Amino acid sequence: MNTPRKPSHPTPPARPEGEHEVKGVPFRDAGEAEQEAPPTPAVASAPPRVTWQKLTILPAVLAIGLLITWLWFRNAELDSIAENALAGGIVWLRLRQHIELTVISTFFVLIIAIPLGILLTRKKLRGAAPVAMAFANIGQATPAIGLLALLVIWMGIGMRAALFGIVIYAVLPVLSNTIAGLKANDPTLLEAARGIGMSPLGVLGKVELPLAVPLILAGVRTALVLNVGTATLATFGGGGGLGDLITTGITNQRMSILILGSILTVALALLVDWLASLAELLLRPRGLEVRS
Amino acid sequence: MNFWDYLGNRHQQLLTDAFQHASAVFQCMVVATLIGVVIGVVTYRSEWAGSLATTATSTILTVPSLAMIGLLIPIVGLGVAPTVIALTLYGLLPIVRNAIVGLRGVDPALVDAAKGIGMSRTARLLRVELPLAWPPILTGIRVSTQMLMGIAAIAAYASGPGLGNEIFRGIGSLGSKNALNQVLAGTLGIIILALLFDAAYVLIGRLTIPRGIRA
């Protein structure tokens, strides 16, 4: 027998070929029909937030992938150019730079975008929100590499220009997410909060922000994933990072360096996304989980 | 040389680059849309296949584009091939996800009614479900296109076509007088292309979304 469908899932039950439908109730076998048919009122026993599959599959795949890469790389024949390019622990240095770029830029993205999103949804500034959104749309059309190149010309080569570029590029999506989420809060809840005499700050701190926590976490994840990607471009402005290995591989025509750099980048990106998705699941307030 | 002189001098080259950029993105979008909708149609009925398709495509999206191109180069070499493959892969995700969401969002009563008047499975899909799911799919196409504009610029590093070449020429000649002009021309060109595409999609939406479900 199939595993029971999660009762809180919003999508309508899928109907495989050959299954009949009687008065809107999928008719397969008694047990299954009972589980699927009525919209279960509330989640009786909350399912565990993090399943073991989620905890293990991705790290296992990554570990195997990295192990294979390491074994392959140990046996790969490197000529002098490739060896010079990788000498002196350069791989670790690039990896560390990449993580630094990602973490620092994400920090700045969050402390800029989330307060700004809150400000732009206040009554007094609400008029400015569409302008900000239009701005965000144009920003999204800007290619990251172009933005980075302009900053490098303006500020000179180095990590600083790269950091600025990464932050600017990620602020807009996180900002528009935050605005959209705060706007989506049920206005009757805010009305009720004001009705019982809460101050505007109280409404924000005790009602709006807690309701927006999932959204803010989603913003963190978006920023992290975007920044890992944009940080690969830092190399074009002399900012280091794993992109450096990739470009070295391409310009020197050394496929082993190219592959090593690419695989490390992919692994880091997937790992960061996985960690962020775990945080998203674990930090979400319990009260917001029951959605029928 | 100021920016306008630069544009005047190089407009031939810039227009060629812009045309190649647009045509690469457009062709990859067509392929990605076809594949994406087919994946959506095949998977939306089953819970696990749908989530497998979504997970697989979103994993691809998590991979930084430079790394994806880096992994493709040893397999297919430099030039147009890695560009086209990378663009198509990245273009898939928003389309697959929105196709699945859109197809699942179709009111089952409508599909039932179509079945009731004797429409075959294919006819139901083509004449009822897909037209109803078309607005979210079109949104997915818009999102994909914007994203591909930027990725195509990066692909120029692997000798791909398009305006990215202009940007990389600028990076390569940092410090020279023309560096800023080149980077600016490439970047603005891509922004303009992205906005033009977006306008075209609004128009396509007007023309193709069935009258009955227009917002």
Automatic annotation (TrEMBL), chain A:
Record's bilayer topology term: Multi-pass membrane protein
InterPro entries: ABC_transp_perm/SBD, MetI-like, MetI-like_sf
GO biological process: glycine betaine transport; transmembrane transport
Gene3D superfamilies: MetI-like
Domain of life from the UniProt record: Bacteria
Membrane-spanning segments: 55-73, 101-120, 132-155, 161-180, 257-276
Record localization: Cell membrane; Membrane
Limits of the ABC transmembrane type-1 domain: 95-276
Record region (Disordered): 1-46
GO cellular component: plasma membrane
Sorted UniProt keywords: Membrane, Transmembrane, Transmembrane helix, Transport
PANTHER family: GLYCINE BETAINE/L-PROLINE TRANSPORT SYSTEM PERMEASE PROTEIN PROW, OSMOPROTECTANT IMPORT PERMEASE PROTEIN OSMW
Annotated family: Belongs to the binding-protein-dependent transport system permease family.
Protein name in the entry: ABC transporter permease subunit
Species: Streptomyces boluensis
Automatic annotation (TrEMBL), chain B:
Protein's GO biological process: glycine betaine transport; transmembrane transport
Mode of membrane association: Multi-pass membrane protein
Entry keyword annotation includes Transmembrane helix: yes
ABC transmembrane type-1 domain span: 18-201
Top-level taxon in the UniProt lineage: Bacteria
Compartment(s): Cell membrane; Membrane
Regions crossing the membrane: 24-44, 65-93, 183-204
Protein name according to UniProt: ABC transporter permease subunit
